[in-house]
């Protein structure tokens, strides 16, 4: 953890991470394993710490987006299988193979380029099928057969998995989800005609794993819900699963003052006091990733809601207090305080975005403090 000088910090409750992994494991069939997705530094929570907690709770694999992220896990001493879900240059194949990191592929030309690299051990590969996400992967049986041919007689690579990604698994209407499932099954039938070696088959993201646990195959890729966030309001509003939000954000009052009616606050004088008011300042701003668009949203002080007023500055922001508070009083921007709670979805809705983005946008200069690092804490 970074040494703290400024009194603004985030807390990540690792017992919540473990709880969420156990919740999905209880829903899945016994032979379906859990891959914890820890890309983007664990969705802003801290990849290494989250990975360790998830593995403690029964996850057996990890997934990231970048080879750099996979190497961070290996350098931290994590030995569990790791798959990189995005494209990686063939020139990096040796690094991946040497560190037992599994890569995604979907081009025959990519395989041919990897074959030119000098690998000391076979590179483990997962083949990506695009069944309707429209992002990356093969789409037709013709492409599949060409890709399988590229693997023949190549000892430098080993096919260990095939997968797809659902675009609408979090929506109430499952029509398109079913369409993608049928496309996957058709490709899988063709695959089995040409390939007899054992591979892992994985189709489920958080939403699909939560809603269709009995239809998941060898393992699921549990992403945003590892962190206690629901993939959609529909899933959150139904009793599919009980998740606990792991992330909270806090600061402290560094200045408190009383202003007269008509006094202006902040850049541009966009806020004018409508009466005598108590104003507090906290050391957090858009330089930390707390968007200027969050002007007007509530924070918690003494368990009571206090709105952000005036334009948010790069390093500080101002709030309207319900009463005078002492310097050093704790302010909660995300999370629980004295029985009141601000969840990630409230912030996301205010910004017109999704909860995935909120912890990711909060920068590294906000130190993360990890709670309950050990299973029995």
How would you describe this protein?
By secondary structure, the protein is of the alpha/beta class. Helix content is 28%, strand content 25%. It has 12 helices and 20 strands. The strands form 3 sheets. Strands 1, 10, 11, 14, 15, 16, 17, 18, 19 and 20 form a 10-stranded mixed sheet that branches. β6, α7 and β7 form a beta-alpha-beta unit.
Mean pLDDT: 96
Which CATH architecture of the largest domain would you pick? Answer: Alpha-Beta Barrel
Q: Give the C-level CATH assignment of the largest domain.
A: Alpha Beta
The SS-based structural class is: alpha/beta
Number of helices: 12
Please estimate the helix content.
25-40%
Largest sheet properties? 10 strands, mixed
Strand content: 15-25%
Shape: elongated
- Overall number of strands: 20
Distance between the termini: 19 Å
Indicate the low-confidence ranges by residue numbers: none
Under CATH, the topology of the largest domain can be stated as: TIM Barrel
| Total of domains | 2
Set down the secondary structure blueprint.
Blueprint: E1 8-13, H1 14-27, E2 33-37, H2 39-43, H3 47-56, E3 61-64, H4 67-75, E4 82-84, H5 93-98, E5 101-105, H6 108-115, E6 123-128, H7 141-151, E7 157-163, H8 175-194, E8 200-202, H9 206-211, E9 219-222, H10 233-236, E10 247-252, E11 255-259, E12 264-265, E13 271-272, E14 277-282, E15 298-301, E16 304-309, E17 317-321, E18 330-337, E19 340-342, H11 344-351, H12 357-361, E20 368-371
Parallel strand pairs: 1-20, 2-3, 2-9, 3-4, 4-5, 5-6, 6-7, 7-8
Antiparallel strand pairs: 1-10, 10-18, 11-14, 12-13, 14-17, 15-16, 15-18, 16-17, 18-19
